[in-house]
Amino acid sequence: MIAPTSSTAFGSFWTGIRSQGAFTGQRVMAIVDGNELDLLLDGYQLKGKILICATIAVSRSVSKDASWGMDEHEGADLERGATRFEGAPRAVSDRAVMDTLDDFTRLNNELVNTKRELTRVNARTNELNIRLKEANESMETFVYSVAHDLREPVRMVSAFMERLDREYGATMDGKARTYTQFARDGALRVNTMMDDLMTYYKARDIGITGSADLNALTAEVIQLLGLVIEENEAEVVAGPLPKIEGSPAAFRQVLQNLIGNALKFRSPDRKPSIRLEAKGENGQWHITISDNGLGIPEGSLDQIFKLFKRAHGRSSEGTGLGLALVKQIVERHGGRIWAESTMGVGSTFHMVLPQDPVHHKHLGPDEN
After folding, report:
1. Do residues 337 and 326 make contact, with C-beta atoms less than 8 angstroms apart?
2. What distance, in Å, lies between the first and last C-alpha atoms of the chain?
3. Which of 48, 114, 285, 355 suits a disulfide with 360, CB 3.0-4.6 Å?
4. CB 29 within 8 A of CB 6
5. DSSP label at 2?
6. Of 274, 264, 271, 273, which is closest to residue 232 (Cα–Cα)?
7. pLDDT digits (tens, 9 = 90+) for 260-304
């Protein structure tokens, strides 16, 4: 039993073990079998146990060491200020003490080694991030440089083909005029590819802050593509769409590409029908854009989101950068995109995007 005069000191000792994991050098007085003993206590918390080691002065000339082990719950009353152990203390052998201290040393060494490894990994990660940033900056500089340097010779090719056609067109046969037209079309395609490539690289710097109202953006895109929609008697139906966290300009580009592709690759046998829908799933928005167009060959479904890849080969319109741009924007906003398709029936593009915590309940005018 701890002497009443030492109850406060022992309470501090016990609290120190619980809060710090170890507390050493605490001096207390204890009463054992009617004898008052002077104790110097060291305490450790290991594996859910409290280990107390004491140097006990039996008399002025005799001292001995002792250790006790107890479960944490056995010391709960002591933490509240009691001065008596409940039940008889259990003696802990010197071997058990050494084993516990060995475990403590081993765990400490593992912690030190883990910290060193973590420091090494963090340093390596920082180094790779710096190198990746430098590589991206170099690639961006290269793309801008190439695009700039190519424009002038491409412009000259186009200009001279027009001049050739204007000055000598009357003397050229049909084959020669076809060749000059091929040259002009090729120059135009190169210019378009450079524009699209610049747009693709600029998309990496698009901010993802703000709120994008997909209902309003879809209405803008439908108005922008109004002439093509009218000429092909197309039907574009948008169900209630969400507001999401992200760049409105970026998602306008996404919708324009997907709806534009549905119109571009329409079936010649029927009027185009395009439908946009959305539903909430596990804290995310699942948005689909479906059409009844030509469809995409099964072998191309994994390729169409790569740079310069076109679902219907080189004979189709476009540069093969539109869907790569769409994928980059969606992934930059923490989402993913994929396509499902049946040839001759149509295609469905799926986008999964995080719900905006502010607008996650809003699905537009016909809110569900």
Report:
1. yes
2. 70
3. 355
4. yes
5. B
6. 271
7. 999 999 999 999 999 999 999 888 999 999 999 999 988 888 888
State how far the Cα of 339 lies from the Cα of 337, in Å rounded to an integer: 7
Give CA–CA dist 223/229, Å, rounded.
Answer: 9
**Bridge pairing between strands 90-91 and 49-57:** unpaired
Q: Is the pLDDT of residue 73 over 70?
A: no
Residue 357: which of 261, 278, 243 has the closest Cα?
243
Cβ density class 212-237: b for 16+ within 10 Å, e for less: bbbbebbeebbeebeeebeeeebebe
User: What secondary structure does DSSP assign to 295-335, as a single string?
Assistant: ---GGGTTTTTSTT--TT-TTSSS-S-HHHHHHHHHHHTT-
Predicted TM-score (pTM) above 0.85 = no
Question: What CA–CA distance (Å, rounded) separates 181 from 65?
Answer: 102
Amino acid code (one letter) for 122: N
Q: How many CB atoms neighbour CB 187 within 10 A? A: 20
| Strand 211-213, strand 63-71: pairing | unpaired
Find, among 69, 67, 97, 75, the residue nearest to 18 by Cα: 75
Banded pLDDT at 342 (limits 50, 70, 90): very high
DSSP, collapsed to helix, strand or coil, labels residue 358 as coil
Euclidean distance between CA atoms 18 and 48, whole angstroms: 10
Q: Measure CA 34 to chain center.
A: 68
Q: Which of 94-108, 152-166, 229-243, 329-343 has the lowest mean pLDDT?
A: 94-108
Write the DSSP string, 195-245.
Answer: HHHHHHHHGGG----SEEEHHHHHHHHHHHTHHHHHHTT-EEEE----EEE
Read off the pLDDT of each residue in 334-354 and give the average, rounded to a whole number.
94
221 pLDDT more than 50 = yes
Outline where DSSP puts E strands in 134-220. Answer: 211-213
- Name the DSSP class of 269: T
Q: Are 208 and 356 in contact (CB under 8 A)?
A: no
